[in-house]
Amino acid sequence: MSKQEISIFWFRRDLRLEDNVGLFQALQSKYSVVPLFIFDDSILDSLPKNDARVGFIHDSLSKINTQLQEIGSSLLVKKGKTFDVWQSLLQEYDVKEVFFNKDYEPYAIQRDTAICELLETNKTIAYSFKDQVIFEEKEITKADGLPYTVYTPFKNKWLEKYKSMAPVQEYDTESHFSNFHKNSFDFPTLEQIGFEESPIKVKPHNLKFISNYRDIRDFPALDKTSYLSPHLRFGTVSVRKLVNWAFHKNDVFLSELIWREFFMQILFSFPKVVTQNFKSAYDGIEWRNNEEDFKRWCSGTTGYPMVDAGMRQLNETGYMHNRVRMVVASFLIKHLMIQWQWGEAYFAEKLLDYDMSANVGNWQWAAGTGCDAAPYFRVFNPEIQQKKFDEKGIYIRKWIKEFDLGYGKPMVEHAMARDRAIATYKSGILK
C-alpha cells in the first residue's frame, strides 16, 4: 500500500497557530499539512522531571491540539532523539515538504543542519522562515557588513529599517486552516513523556501597564511587569504583533524588544559567547569561585536583602524582576568574584523565560566581559539599590519572611568587596 503524501509543519519556538510565518507558508502547500512537535531527548534528559518549562510547553501544545480538533485535525507529538524521530517519520509517510521557523542557537543550528541533510537524502524539500524576530542574522549590519557589537547604533539601524516597512507584515494563518491534514492523533499526557506537574507555573502575559513602563519598570514591589518573556521565548505570542503594537505605545518597552534581537544577533554571529568572554582581554582575571559562597548566593542567604529576595523569588517561582537580576548578577561576580558562567548556568536551570542569547548577553553585560557591557569598575551597592527601588522593603518582606526578626549580617563587606573586584579586574585584564 502506498504511503500518504503530506507536508509537515514542525513546531519549535513558535507554539501558536496565529501569525506564524512557517505555518502560514506550509498551509499554502498542495499537500495536506501534518503539524508536528518533538520532545527532544537531547534537551529533556538534562532536566528535572518536574521542570516547569516542560509543563508550559505541554500546556501550550494542548491548547494548539484543542484548536486543531475543532477543525478535524490534531497535533502529532513525538518524543526521542530528533534525528531518530525524523527517520521514523520519513519511513511512515511520504513526506514531500517540511516547513519550520528558524532557531539561531548553536545546538538548534547544528540540529537543523543534520535534519535538512536527512530530508535532502529523502528527496524531501525543506523550507525555513524567520518568525521569532523582526530582523535576523545579517539583516542589521554596519556599512561594511559586519555585525554591530554596540547596542545604540544597532537600535538606530533597527528602527530606521522598521520604520521603512511599518507595520511589519502579520500572517493570516486562520484563513488557510482547511489545508490541515484530517487526523486524530493521540495527545500524550505529561506523564507519558516522562514528566510531572510542577507547582511553578508560567503566568499569563499582561500589557496593561505598558503605558507607564518607563516610570514603574524598576520597582519590583509594584509587580507591574508584562510577564511576556516566557511567552516570547516559547513563541506563544507573535513578535510582529507585539512590535507593531509597542511601536505606538512605549519607546522604552520597544527598546527592550530590540535588546532581545541585539543579543540574538550577537549569539548568531559570535557563538563562542555561550561559554567564553566576548572580550578575550578579560580571560586573565583570577576568580575566587568559592563553592560555599556560591551556595549561599543560590539559596538567598548572603545577608544582603535585595540579593536574597531576588534569589528566593527565582527559586520559588521561576521569575525574577529585571532590576533585581542586575543586582544579584553584579553581587555574584563583583562581590564574590565568581565567574559569570556559574550564575548563567544557575539562571538557565531556574528561569521560566530562559533564553540563551539574552541570559548570556546579560550576564556578560554584568561581568563587563560582553559587548557593550557595563564597565568593570561599576559595582552595584545592594543596599543603595534597595533604598532606591524598594525603600519600604515591600518586595524584600514578601520573599524574606524572617526579615523583621533580625536579619543576618552580610557575608562580605561592600567596600572591601568593591575594592577587591576592581583590583582583581585591573590586574587580570590582558593588555
Features:
3 domains, DNA Cyclobutane Dipyrimidine Photolyase, subunit A, domain 3, five-stranded parallel sheet, Rossmann fold, alpha/beta, Serine Threonine Protein Phosphatase 5, Tetratricopeptide repeat
Report on this model:
This protein is α/β, with parallel strands linked by helices. It has 18 helices and 5 strands. The chain has 3 domains: 1-131, Rossmann fold; 133-168 and 212-269, Serine Threonine Protein Phosphatase 5, Tetratricopeptide repeat (Alpha Horseshoe); 280-428, DNA Cyclobutane Dipyrimidine Photolyase, subunit A, domain 3. The protein starts with a strand and ends with a helix. Helices cover 45% and strands 8% of the residues. It has a 5-stranded parallel beta sheet with strand order 3-2-1-4-5. The chain is globular, with a radius of gyration of 23 Å. Strand 4, helix 5 (106-121) and strand 5 (125-129) form a beta-alpha-beta unit. It has helices spanning 21-26, 41-44, 52-69, 82-92, 106-121, 151-163, 213-216, 229-234, 239-249, 251-269, 291-299, 305-317, 322-335, 340-350, 356-367, 382-389, 394-399, 414-428; strands at residues 5-11, 33-40, 76-80, 94-101, 125-129.
